[in-house]
């Protein structure tokens, strides 16, 4: 019986560690997405058709807001 309890505790620890890692990965991805958004805004300012350009940036903004919303609900 104690062996079973230890196995359950170890599994729980692994799950918690995995969750923390996933949260860190999501935060890093969010930072990169924000940086990419700024970079793209500068890079494509003169090149792209305005409608496409602003639609693209709106899509990035919506994705950033969605990820932040999900993170705040879980946190």
Describe the protein.
The protein is mainly α. The chain has one domain (2-74). It is built from two helices and no strands. It has helices spanning 2-43, 50-74. Helix 1 (2-43) runs antiparallel to helix 2 (50-74). The mean pLDDT is 76.
Task: State the helix count.
Answer: 2
Mean pLDDT: 76
> From the helix content, strand content and strand pairing, which structural class follows?
mainly alpha
- Gyration radius from CA atoms, angstroms: 20 Å
How do the SSEs run, as a string of H and E?
HH
Distance between the termini: 34 Å
Largest sheet: none
How many separate structural domains?
1
- Tell me, briefly, the overall form: rod-shaped
Helix content: over 70%
Count of DSSP E strands?
Answer: 0
Portion in beta strands: under 5%
The low-confidence runs, each spanning 5 or more residues with pLDDT under 50, are none
Which key phrases capture this entry?
75 residues, mainly alpha, 2 helices, 89% helix
Topology readout:
Layout: H1 2-43, H2 50-74
Helix pairs in contact: 1-2
Describe what is shown at a glance.
By secondary structure, the protein is mainly α. It has helices at residues 2-43, 50-74.
């Amino acid at each position: 019986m104690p062996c079973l309890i230890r196995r359950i505790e170890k599994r729980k620890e692994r799950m918690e560690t995995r969750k923390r890692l996933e949260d860190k990965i999501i935060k890093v991805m969010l930072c990169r997405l924000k940086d990419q958004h700024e970079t793209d805004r500068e890079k494509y300012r003169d090149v792209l058709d305005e409608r496409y350009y602003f639609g693209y940036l709106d899509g990035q903004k919506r994705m950033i807001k969605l990820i932040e919303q999900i993170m705040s609900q879980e946190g």
